[in-house]
Specification:
5-stranded antiparallel sheet; 12 strands; alpha+beta
């Protein structure tokens, strides 16, 4: 049983490696110093809502080593429009007008998106600080071949997390803005 478990993990590693070869890095620019100070101070403009989008985890119950960091280049999508993207070690910070948005994220592959996450509807209010994390849950069915992988494909998941939980997670990341 142990050999099968190691074989499955090796299979997942090979799949991840092959997918990584197909990704396109996000195009963005570093944040101005005043935005960096505001992000570290956890403040938002009074008339806008501030969104922080960053990589989360790559995790599944079958991973005995625990979760890994999701490092896939990713785009934040709001109401069907790409707002900007992130690469490994970055957090995208954007200010949006108060209104209701359907957020999702897409894994950057070539000129489009591979995996696209669930939609997360959020009503933004002036002064809101919103933290959105891009997680991936790999396929559990891949251990059972193509049929299993089709029955349980990998999933991209967008998670909204509380500022007290996520503000510390972005502290060491490079702050970027949309290009």
């Amino acid at each position: 049983m142990m050999g099968r478990s190691v074989g499955f993990r090796l299979f997942v590693l090979v799949v991840i490696s092959s997918l990584a070869a197909c990704v396109s890095p996000a195009k963005n620019v570093g944040a101005p110093p005043e935005l960096e100070r505001a992000v570290k101070a956890q403040t938002a403009p009074e008339e806008m809502a501030r969104i922080h989008f960053f990589h989360g985890v790559y995790d599944s119950p079958a991973m005995i080593f625990g979760p890994m960091s999701n490092k896939q280049p990713a785009d934040l999508i709001a109401n069907g429009t790409v707002q900007g993207g992130i690469n490994k070690g970055q957090v995208l910070v954007i200010d949006l007008d108060p209104q209701e948005y359907d957020f999702s994220w897409g894994e950057r592959v070539g000129d489009g998106h591979g995996l696209v996450s669930n939609k997360l509807t959020i009503r933004l209010m002036p002064g809101d600080l919103i933290y959105l994390r891009a997680d991936i849950r790999p396929s559990m069915g891949a251990a059972f071949g193509i049929v299993g992988a089709l029955a349980d494909p990998p999933r991209a998941i967008l998670v909204r997390c509380a500022p007290e939980e996520c503000a510390s997670q972005i502290g060491a990341l490079q702050i970027v803005v949309a290009n």
